[in-house]
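Supplementary Methods S3. Complex input for the magnesium ion-bound model.
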Amino acid sequence: MSTRPDILFPLFAGLDSLDGIGPKTAAHFANIHVEKPRDLLFLLPYSGTDRRMRDTVAGVPAGEVATVTVTVKRHSPARARGRPYRVFVDDGQIEFPLVFFHANDRYLTAQLPEGARRVISGKLEWFDGTPQIVHPDHILEPDAVDGLPDYEPVYPLTAGVTQKVMARAVRHAVRLAPDLAEWIDPSLMRREGWPSWADALHQAHSPQATGDLSPETPARQRLAYDELFAHQLTLALARADQRRATGKPTVGDGTLRDKVLKSLPFAPTGAQTRAIGEITADLAAPYRMNRLLQGDVGSGKTLVALMALLTAVEAGGQGVMMAPTEILARQHLDSILPLAEAAGVVVAVLTGRDKGKERQSKLAALARGDIHILIGTHAVFQKDVEFRDLRLAIIDEQHRFGVAQRMELAAKGQGAHILVMTATPIPRSLSLAQYGDMDVSILDQKPPGRTPVKTALVSTARMEEVVAHLRGAIDGGRQAYWVCPLVEESEVMDMTAAQDRFVHLRAVFGEGVVGLVHGQMADAEKDAAMADFVAGRTKVLVATTVIEVGVNVPNASIMVIERAEHFGLAQLHQLRGRVGRGDAASTCLLMYQSPMSETGRRRLEILRETEDGFRISEEDLAMRGAGDVIGTAQSGLPRFRIADLERQANLMATAQTDARALLHTDPDLTGDRGRAARVLLWLMERDRAIKLIKVG
Ligand code: ADP
Ligand code: MG
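Predicted complex, serialized as structure tokens:
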């Protein structure tokens, strides 16, 4: 099925095929991403207006909507420009005016002839002790009152689209929704008491009371589930596709791993051992691994990665590990090289800085198989980089990668097993949404012997105190990071801020004590600045967020973050994770500019309360939208129209289990439910997923 099923055609027609919509109105709808009838189905009312009939407007509080039957008494046309036109009506108990500005007299006489009975509905106002309704929402003849629902849905609007036009268009779109074969597991439907798709749409668009607008109603739950299920089915198809790409079963004899483990001054944590076991099993399997290793900063992901790489080498193959920045690639090299070399394993580094002859000879050694483990930046995936027998590709800290990018990388990985490592703890619902195509290992346990980081909030007004405190600490042999504010996502502006602070601190602490690193520096300069800090030659490192991920300097025990209120919670958590790595008690100073907003303060307080990355991420999600937490633009996270990732995390988990189960029993989606699920994918515009369905 490579074309959209006929049954969905009316829903994918032009918007101007709907009642009351011409090309001009259709253009307005486009501003809220409504381009076809289908889009209207998923635009749900957010509120409702009670239009139940009342006997009289007498006693109705100002601001409430009143719906009453009246007799038209007399017209009082506008006496001057800018004055209102009034039509006095009587509901049997009280006479009051309907008020119209810029009225069309002829229209009003036709609509409200004197002596006629009419049903009027609109917001009641009180003016000088008299009730009035300005521009009633509805003026109906009494026998047309059936057209007025007791409870009228209120939709989100955009300029050029009125509530009436919207409601009419939505009603038409809902009428176009066909009965579709059910794609949800029947037992789940029963357990949850969900209506069919078409019924759910009808119910969601015709609320009878405020309670019907809740995301907890069976209709809305079902519609949310459809979105999540379509998404998880997409991911499950991607996963199945990955698995079809057969990986080379890679089983090591354990000799290299044993050697390295014996040389370590510590034993792996339980979580590390578990993750290593999961990865080893994946590598040994005949299909390609596609696994995510999720672990907070300092949870010891590097060791897990190294064990996986060594398995590849034991099996006679090669491994590659890619980091997002030069600094991180070097740091991985520094931590892995001594361990690997002790075991007789050859490790090399390849970054954008490798050029000419040296690069050529590295590539040749790689192609011969003389290099066992390659570490580098994205340069390791350049076209001309060839391995003799690549078994495993590890991508570190790529929490900014979306599903699509991962699939691209996997394609370049020449059939190698894939392990993605992320240090960003994200809430379970988001993790399922973003990484649902992968299997996940979690390092939920930190290596022992860590001292908690003391976190404090300090106003920038107390800058001098902070600097004085820092001087004391430096005199005591400690080192500090000083992170400068993010200036509107501009690296150039960040640099200026960092440079200014650098000059200031250098003036205070003296020449040679303060280092500087920012994204605009040449790689060699950056490395030199980092190396000075790692070696303890500089005591304070002024930086932009280039130090955000991964950097490890155990002697650094103070983290100052300027304008912390401008950073995301996850980012602050990452930055703080740079300290607390040694034996010394560590401090994190979150400097903020007063006055801070209430949410700004609450966000920083969460950091003060906990160092648990998962808890921080859950709070972050609760305070912001799902998209914001990882940055929708880069996250590869779909925008859901109905589903709410924060409140419907359980639905997401169910959707994943169910999608995988469906593909397990019906891998080609050719059974009854499978075919229905295909229609769902079309309905949800999951074109990429449809391409992944195995043909024939
Ligand atoms: P991350 O998950 O942030 O990449 P690392 O792999 O850099 O963490 O590990 C952080 C520090 O913890 C390193 O200095 C590493 O040597 C140390 N470490 C890793 N595993 C253990 C362990 N099981 N016991 C003690 N220290 C460990
Ligand atoms: Mg790391």
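The pocket of adenosine-5'-diphosphate (ligand 1) is lined by residues 266, 268-269, 272, 295, 297-303, 423, 447, 552 (CB under 6 Å). The domain at 52-148 is CATH 2.40.50.140 (OB fold (Dihydrolipoamide Acetyltransferase, E2P)).
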